Fold this protein.
Amino acid sequence: MTKITVKANGPYLVEGADIVDETGASFPVEAGKPVALCRCGASARKPFCDGTHVKIGFKSAETAAAFKAK
Ligand code: FES
């Protein structure tokens, strides 16, 4: 089962999925290990998170509870 965790003020943590580009080619990831995908847009290693979100003070507001309230 694929699980995507939306981290507070950070990346999307993806478990149990292949990460592919628009051609279908896979990015190299370690089997069985979660990967962090950048959602702040500032990573130098896109599509992966490199921790830059901390340096730039990225703030997210998305939570499941907030989504249900809309
Ligand atoms: S979310 Fe971590 S560098 Fe963008």
Remarks:
- The chain has a mean pLDDT of 93.
